[in-house]
Design goal:
- This protein has two domains: 95 residues, no CATH class; 198 residues, Up-down Bundle (Methane Monooxygenase Hydroxylase, Chain G, domain 1), CATH 1.20.58.
- The protein has nine helices and no strands.
- Helix 4 runs antiparallel to helix 7 and helix 7 runs parallel beside helix 9.
- Helix content is 79%, strand content 0%.
- By secondary structure, it is mainly alpha-helical.
Length: 308
């Protein structure tokens, strides 16, 4: 009886020993799996860093940096199986995005579409303001009601500028430099502000009849703003901008010539000094508006160069 009890206890002890061995093997397998996962994650991170470093070194002309987003997904699996080759991965990405193939219809990110709409609205408002100012100076003093219409345009321009600045702060552009767009928005706002000042001065200074030089400057301003609006409408195609911007520069030079001759004429023939002061202010505001058109053109030219 005692011998059987000893045998049973010995059998139980051997069973416990086998269970301990199995538990040790399971623990070793779990530890190995954890090490494998950690190593796999480390390899994956290393692959991504390698591909990113290589992509940064690639010329933008020949291989867009979108390879950063594409290569790591398949490169990791190929590395594990020993079939991954960095050169072939980059070559495949180059083929997928080759500039020799058809170019996309637009180079702008969808996120920037709201900015483009706002700048087009600003361009149309600038052109409409200049059109009203030209009509005001042509028909003055019978057209005094147009002063209110120009003031309304100034308020519309302020709202557009506010919206532009809000978008630039809350959703920075992907296609453009934000500083360029801040400068462009300010230049467009200045054009409308200077035009509204001219309309306001006509009433404040009690101008009885417009001078021919002021009417000529209004024509130049209207043409410059129409050209600027066309440039803003065609921002997706930089190739069409160059002749438009050249025309704005030409108009600014013509405006300078008219202003210099007009101011010089004020000091001929003993004109009343108060008249000289009034018209000098008007000429300078018209010149400022035309200069702001050229400033906007310079910014657009810089944007075009950066996107070339």
């Amino acid at each position: 009886m005692r011998a059987r009890s000893v045998a049973a206890i010995d059998l139980q002890l051997r069973g416990l020993a086998r269970a301990d061995d199995q538990a040790a093997r399971v623990s070793a397998q779990v530890s190995g799996a954890a090490r494998y996962d950690a190593e796999a994650r480390a390899v994956q991170l290393a692959v991504k860093e390698i591909v990113r470093a290589q992509a940064r070194a690639i010329s933008l002309m020949n291989s867009p940096l979108l390879i950063i987003l594409i290569a790591p997904r398949h490169a990791f699996d190929e590395l594990i199986t020993g079939r991954w080759n960095l050169a072939s991965t980059i070559a495949g990405s180059r083929a997928a995005f080759s500039t020799k193939g058809p170019m996309p219809a637009t180079r702008f990110k969808p996120r920037d579409s709201e900015l483009l709409k706002l700048f087009r609205r600003a361009g149309r408002n600038v052109q409409h303001t200049a059109e009203l100012l030209e009509q005001l100076l042509t028909e003055w003093p019978e057209s005094q009601e147009l002063r209110r219409a120009i003031l309304d345009c100034e308020h519309i321009g302020d709202r557009i500028t506010h919206d532009l600045i809000h978008v630039l702060h809350t959703a920075p552009p992907r296609t453009f430099d934000r500083e360029d767009l801040f400068g462009l928005a300010a230049a467009l706002d200045d054009i409308v502000d200077f035009a509204e000042e001219v309309a306001d001065y006509l009433g404040l200074y009690q101008i009885e009849a417009p001078m021919e030089a002021a009417q000529q400057l209004a024509v130049v301003l209207h043409e410059a703003t129409a050209t600027l609006a066309s440039a803003l409408d065609g921002l997706e195609d930089f190739d069409t901008l160059k002749p438009l911007l050249i025309n704005i520069h030409r108009l600014e030079n013509e405006g300078d010539r008219i202003v210099r001759a007009a101011i010089a004429s004020l000091f001929v023939g003993g004109i009343d000094p108060t008249v000289i002061i009034r018209w000098k202010d008007l000429f300078e505001r018209l010149e400022d508006a035309i200069d702001s058109c050229e400033k906007a053109a310079h910014i657009l030219e810089g944007i075009a160069v950066k996107q070339a």
